[in-house]
């Protein structure tokens, strides 16, 4: 996988996207449980305030997870043009959490987003621990200027071996900020 794709993935997987002079608006944030035996409790919600989208939620599982694969894709929609797939990747998510990816950029993102969590998640993920995300948002200044105004759809699914545990979908828009 190229560095470019990895950047896109990580940006997306951290809810954010692109564009210094842009506003990243999230219209929909859905967390769906696929393995109902694993999750004790979970939530995901979105707040819109002053043109910024804030994401919060929590999850609690009932057994150790030490092997987690992330499959993620992101599509850009600019009707009437055809949809454009930015990436579709499969990564060892535990390696990312445990800093197995030595890439400086990924680390910066990881550290930036870890501040919205009550604890830095590491593998194995712990049972009966309430992993909580509080008002995570896009730091637009951190993002490179890549894309025009568009809508996006980002999907992330979490798997153990080939078993689907849960998946997340974000739908939103990249808007040009009029300065
Ligand atoms: C939100 O964005 C709109 C349109 O760009 C602008 O008119 C408005 O002042 C912004 N509001 C805040 C609180 O930034
Ligand atoms: C986990 O924490 C969140 C946020 O504080 C809270 O809303 C939720 O009820 C907690 N869930 C459990 C099962 O403790």
From TrEMBL:
It comes from Drosophila rhopaloa. InterPro entries: DUF1091. This is Uncharacterized protein LOC108043810. PANTHER family: DAEDALUS ON 3-RELATED, DAEDALUS ON 3-RELATED-RELATED. It comes from the Eukaryota. The keyword Signal applies. Pfam families: DUF1091. Keywords: Signal. Residues 1-20 form the signal peptide.
